[in-house]
Design goal:
This protein has a six-stranded mixed beta sheet with strand order 1-12-11-10-13-14, with helices on both faces. By secondary structure, it is α/β, with parallel strands linked by helices. The longest helix is centred in the last third of the chain and has 26 residues. The chain is globular, with a radius of gyration of 23 Å. It starts with 18 loop residues before the first strand and ends in an 8-residue tail after the last helix. The relative contact order is 0.12. Bound molecules: FE-MO-S cluster. The site of FE-MO-S cluster has 14 residues, from helix 2, helix 12 and helix 15.
């Protein structure tokens, strides 16, 4: 019985094909959970919309670009400030939210004028910013506003001083945020890559693809590359600039971290410009070593890679071991988007001796589940697009000591006295690389061993 129908799903039995428990000797080909398909009506999905996948995950990270959302104010507000991706220019991208602020009358009579006014106003308010991304949303896509013609008018009016990129990916464009990643990747490739020539400063050049500088991850990786003498032409999109991404065609190698959100552009760069792609895991102590070795080998910089590894191991291994002593055997769930399941499961098990007992992905595709399940253990629960009630049943079944998830589910599990760590925006990151592995271990240790759990479980009504 490798597929599991949870009790809470008895009225929506279609959920069974999304939930899988790995048993000994099973073939992945037979029992991959169904994924990347429409959420079953009646299931309380945790997914985000397609527009969100383009804006919140990828475009919104850029540090020098106005993110103009053509839609009602909520689409802009709800994808603002919910994720922590800093930048080295005082966090322009985190401070402001832009919107054409569509109201009912604009839905009835059209919102193009309103969009044009908003775009011009935003450029006027921020005279140093010359780049903009404009997004459609459900309402403006449904009424058929012609965003591209507005963009043309604005570019002409501002006499070529500005560059604007259109993303036509309303919330309903796909079954989850994953569609938004795809649309942005492909549109950027088709319209913007190749329109700027970068300054080449090293014999060795790469693009880093699918890293979004969550609490400084990008800075960690940048430091390793600087030490190896490798120039990062474009960082897609952590701490990135709009124009650096237009120059992606000049790198010798694409180093892909989050293959789900950005594998598309890596593939397109390979097809059009012949740039090879290597995939690495940047989270986890052993994976960090492996990743640096792969890059070193590609460029013949094996010695440099070993130097960086030796330096980092000397600094951090002892700290990691201290936490390992205290974390080994602890049971963990990972309930995030998709890739972090396969990036993290073996890292937690091999680096720290923990046990990953359940993994849930909001929008992973079949290839993500292949990776997750082949890296994951037997007896572990694997779920696609799970709902809150399933989460509660998993907790009863697996009795985890800690859960990696977002604040929404995190706040719920806290009520069951189970600690959670923000698996999206992190608690106290960065989590990437060697120092990141130690930070992650420290956050887990602090969460599991906090004395507050005992106190929070106590009912004080009778003692007062
Ligand atoms: Fe890639 Fe990401 Fe993730 Fe993701 Fe996301 Fe994310 Fe995620 Mo939250 S790009 S797929 S769409 S690694 S926001 S930074 S943590 S669900 S597993």
């Amino acid at each position: 019985m490798p597929l599991k129908l949870f009790k809470c799903d008895e009225s929506i039995p279609e959920r069974e094909k999304h939930c899988y428990i790995k048993e000994p000797g099973e073939s992945l080909a037979e029992f991959l959970p169904a994924s990347n398909i429409t959420t079953i009506p009646g299931s309380l999905s945790e997914r985000g919309c397609s527009y969100c996948g383009a804006k919140l995950v990828i475009g919104g990270v850029l540090k020098d670009t106005i993110q103009m959302i053509h839609g009602p104010i909520g689409c802009s507000y709800d994808t603002w400030h919910t994720k922590r991706y800093p930048s080295d220019n005082d966090n322009f991208q985190l401070k402001y939210a832009f919107s054409s602020d569509m109201k009912e009358q604009h839905v009835v009579f059209g919102g193009m004028k309103k969009l044009k006014t908003s775009m011009l106003e935003a450029f006027r308010e921020f005279p140093d910013i010359k780049r903009m991304m404009v997004y459609t949303t459900c309402s403006t896509a449904l009424i058929g506003d012609d965003m591209k013609s507005v963009v043309k008018e604005v570019e002409e009016e501002l006499k070529g001083e500005v560059d604007i990129f259109c993303i036509e990916c309303p919330g309903f464009a796909g079954v989850s945020q994953s569609k938004g990643h795809h649309v942005l990747n492909i549109a950027w490739m088709n319209e913007k890559v190749g329109t700027v020539e970068p300054e080449i400063k090293s014999k060795y050049t790469i693009n880093v693809i699918g890293d979004y500088n969550i609490q400084g991850d990008t800075y960690v990786f940048q430091k390793y590359m600087d030490k190896m003498g490798i120039q990062i032409i474009a960082h897609f999109t952590g701490n990135g600039t709009y124009d650096s991404l237009r120059a992606m065609h000049r790198a010798q190698l694409n180093v892909t971290n989050c293959a789900r959100s950005a594998g598309y552009i890596a593939n397109e760069l390979k097809k059009k410009y012949g740039i090879p792609r290597i995939d690495i895991d940047t989270w986890g102590f052993d994976y960090a070593k492996e990743g640096l070795r792969k890059i070193g080998t590609f460029f013949g910089l094996e010695d440099k890679a070993e130097e960086v590894i030796a330096e980092e191991v000397a600094k951090y291994e002892e700290k990691l071991d201290w936490y390992k002593e205290r974390l080994k055997g602890k049971k963990v769930c990972i309930w995030t988007g998709g890739p972090r399941l396969w990036h993290w499961t073996k890292a937690l098990e091999d680096d720290l001796g923990m046990q990953v007992v359940a993994m849930s992905s909001k929008f992973g595709h079949q290839e993500d589940f292949e990776k997750v399940i082949s890296r994951g253990k037997e007896g572990t629960v694997y779920i696609d697009d799970s709902n809150e009630l399933e989460f509660f049943e998993v907790i009863d079944m697996q009795k985890p000591d800690l859960i990696f998830t977002g604040p929404r589910v995190g706040e719920l599990v806290k009520k069951l006295q189970i600690p959670y760590i923000n698996g999206h925006g992190y608690h106290n990151g960065p989590y990437m690389g060697f120092e990141g592995a130690v930070n992650m271990a420290r956050d887990m240790y602090n969460a599991i061993y906090s004395p507050l759990w005992k106190l929070s479980a106590e009912d004080i009504r009778e003692s007062v």
